[in-house]
Amino acid sequence: MFARLFTDSGLSLDRLRALVEVGAAASIARAAEGDPIRQSQYSRQIKELEDFFQTKLVERHGKGIRLTPGGRELARISRFFLMGLSNFRRGCLAEEQIFRIGASATFVDRFLVPLLAQPSRGPGPRYALETVDHIEIERRLHDLTLDFGIVTAAAVSRPLRLEELGGWRLRLWIPKLLCRDESQARQALRDKQLPFVWPAHELALPDLGVFKGREPRLVCASFLEAKTALERGGVAAFLPEFLAPAQAADRFVCLSIKGSDGSLYRYHLAWNPRLLRLNPHATRQRDFLLASLTKGT
Q: What angle do helix axes 36-53 and 69-93 make, rounded to 10 degrees?
């Protein structure tokens, strides 16, 4: 059944691992961490794989390299295979597993860190949290370089799966240093005189409703940064309900705006079902995250 794979030399686990690592790093030098000996080894191993499969696996891209379509497919197959072997070995040795979770800075800070830092009654899995945007989360779930992701999109590409964790209304908060009351705040909106902050990695600019087509005074990454900017008193901000600013009634005007704060900002847990087939323990972790984060929201 597999005789042809072993007729010629050039195929090995080391060579497949080199392709996976170089593809993930988009550079032989970065994959080898600057070690010239390893760089030479990686270059040779990829060339041997190309000779074995009789196809180009990498190509130049700017100052680095990228995998060709054939290289991406071989790297995907290799990653699944290597992950399966790694999980099998950890199970045989009863080793702890590390689950990698990608999410926005806000979700990591407000939900994941409080949940996963709680005292544990005994040994269990370990976690690595990464601040990643939606596009990168989706790509890395496909590649299985993330185990789980938290996204706000209502859909993801196949075969990824989604399950909603909860939703919060977006509220428009305006410092009273800018507008004393609701009437003044609404007039500033009509006159397009209200400066605002835009958390670009967590909220699409058109979703800001009343600010659509206008330029923000400040662009930042997350709702956390937007809240910090809001509390300085110089800009307005849309924030989900769980991030209401301190001393809200005394320091801020909160407006109800149709089409903006009336909409729900939703979080979803995303995963690749292939992960569950490769690692049976991942099913338990998925269920734990769903139960704990849905309850927490």
A: 110
Domain coordinates in residue numbering, the chain: 3-90, 97-165+266-296, 167-264
Say yes or no to pLDDT of 88 above 80: no
% helix / strand / coil in the chain, to the nearest 5? 45, 20, 30
Average pLDDT on 188-201 reads: 92
CATH fold of 97-165+266-296: D-Maltodextrin-Binding Protein; domain 2 (3.40.190)
d(CA 228, CA 157): 34
Closest C-alpha among 252, 172, 168, 248 to residue 209? 172
Which architecture does CATH list for 3-90?
Orthogonal Bundle (1.10)
Q: Which residues contact 141 (CB under 8 A, 6 or more apart)?
A: 148, 149, 156, 160, 270, 271, 272
Do 269 and 229 form a contact (C-beta atoms < 8 A)?
no
Region 233-244: mean pLDDT is 93
Whole-structure pTM value: 0.77
Q: What is the DSSP secondary-structure string of 68-129?
A: -HHHHHHHHHHHHHHHHHHHHHHHHHTPPPEEEEEE-HHHIIIIIHHHHTS--SS---EEEE
From CA 153, how far away is CA 174, in angstroms rounded?
27
Q: Return d(Cα 200, Cα 259) in angstroms, integer.
A: 19
* The CATH number fitting domain 167-264, selected from 3.40.190, 1.10.10, 3.30.70, 3.40.50: 3.40.190
Which has more confidence, 201 or 259?
201
| Residue 216: DSSP 8-state | -
